[in-house]
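cache lookup: miss for this entity combination. No prior model stored, computing from scratch. Input as submitted by user K.M.:
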Amino acid sequence: MPDTLRGALADAGIGALENMAWLFAEQSSHASDEGCIGPTARIEFIGVPSGALLLQVEAPLLAVVAGAMLGTDDTPDLVLQRDALGELANVVCGHVLPEIAGTREEYLLAPPTVFTNWEAALKPTDVVAEVVHLAVQGGWARVGFIRPAPN
Amino acid sequence: MSLHTLVVDDSAVMRSMLIRTLRLSGLPLTTVEQAGNGQEALEVLARTGIDLALIDLGMPIMDGEALLVKMRENQALARIGVVVVSTEGSQTRIDRLTELGAVFIRKPFTPEEVRTAVLRVLGVGDA
């Protein structure tokens, strides 16, 4: 299960960055981004399993990602950058869930919430099941899969 | 054929991506209207003659599936071609949307995928 989850997170993260922002990305074994600043989108999902998906993109890279998604060379404002991050996270989440739960399972996805950094996006009851680091052209990103704490 | 199109998605970035992709697809578009949720979409549909609607599923206030059901229940809107554009990965839900006459494409999408889906939902062969 961890290998499957790890692979699903990496594939979905890489696929979303490449197909939505046209940026080359690859899985990175280095956790060099720990503690670094970067907005983080959180998407809660209800199904089997329930949980949340986190996507953090380094701040300068997010401006590039949002510009690419909008098809502009100008730097989009912060509202559009957060919108782009949320939509990217939504796509990642939508691709991860069927990989780990099968295509017959239905999920209810909450709208993305964007936080200033990774730590702010975590709740005290969260159990981080897996985190994948991605090296992206000119920056980094990370994807996390959160399970609620067992009762 | 010229298409007066409605794009429904709560993300302004995704609406922009979709409109750009539609234009790249070579489809004969006229005006492209936008709405941020199902309720706003119904308001646009009530005042404008729309030929084609591209609808996201996960939206606040009224989601895409509820919008599609309301369109099919309304005689004036029932024949509008609908392409659902979503990250949805559940085949169960996709089957339900297909039964309502929608064609489904998954985000992220290419101009070719959008073109194929639109032509399919309109019952038009590609030239």
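stored under new cache key. Chain A has one domain: 2-148.
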